[in-house]
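pipeline stage [seq->struct] | target=L,D-transpeptidase family protein | organism=Halomonas icarae | residues=343
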Amino acid sequence: MSTLTLTSRGVRHALAIGLGALFATGALAATPTYDAVHELPRGHYALPEEGSVIGESYTVIVEEGDTLIDIAREHNVGYEEIRMANPDVSIWAPYADTEVTIPSRRVLPAADREGIVINLSELRLYYYSKPGVVETYPISVGREEFSTPVGVTKTTIKVKDPAWAPPASMRREAAERGEPAPSIVPAGPDNPLGRHAILLGIPSYLIHGTNKPAGVGMRVSRGCIRMFPEDIESLYERVPSGTQVNIIDQPFKAGWTADGELLAQSYPALEENREGFEPLMFAIDKLTEVFGEEQPPVDYKRLRTIVERSDGQAISLLRTAEEEPTPAPSAPRNLYEAIAVVR
């Protein structure tokens, strides 16, 4: 992982004056990957000419008064992402001067690079906005009893300052708690849709903002896709009606970097999909698709660890020359046998 340590205010200042000036002075010359990540607008990345990996992880330093939620939002990361990348750091009261990892290196989902791709387990939206560019943003999706459906649909109508009609089930629940909900919530600070909404071809499902941005990056909605207010505003202005939206669920991703490194990312599977789901077998199947006809020197023990941890970190799967495998009576004939011998 390439890292760059800056204070939160330092990052804000650098973005304000332009990182080009800092690199021109040589102040950040040791970490050119940071420039590659941040020279484009928020969430934008150049599509690699080869491979399927974008971005680079780095670190920042907590300043007095910062929360991990504040840092996550500033760096285009969701709640679960920042929590899993920093398991020993308090979400709401991190100590000043603590080093925090920003997990910005990602394997693109295995899906057509067209329109919007939403990966539910990853809690991420990808938008292939123009040739050579992909955008990605953290999202919230439906909680277990209100799962966001998978499938291909499209954007339809865009609405600014939408009114919100709480569903009948929500009104019943509120009434049972003695807190009757209104039939219509007008636009304003109390509207959970925020100021921008993009309707989908699936009835009653939207991509929208929120009046509770701290929850972005969690499973908290009733099926809709929630985004940070600044992110949905940006998409609202630029996503044409009729744009394809491919909603997928890939808890494990693997792909090659441009320089031949094999990376894997594993996320917790959605609760409603865990029955009968074998994470390791799913990972093996996805690796097989990535390999094609060749099988590189994979560290299968590391693969098992990645799948068991499921913390979303982009980890190399290739053995190095120094990591010679323990001699075995016979070489495994396929990935399934290889996994079995490292139990």
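stage status: PASS
auto-comment: The longest strand covers residues 151-160. Residues 5-39+57-104 form a domain with the Membrane-bound Lytic Murein Transglycosylase D; Chain A fold (CATH 3.10.350.10).
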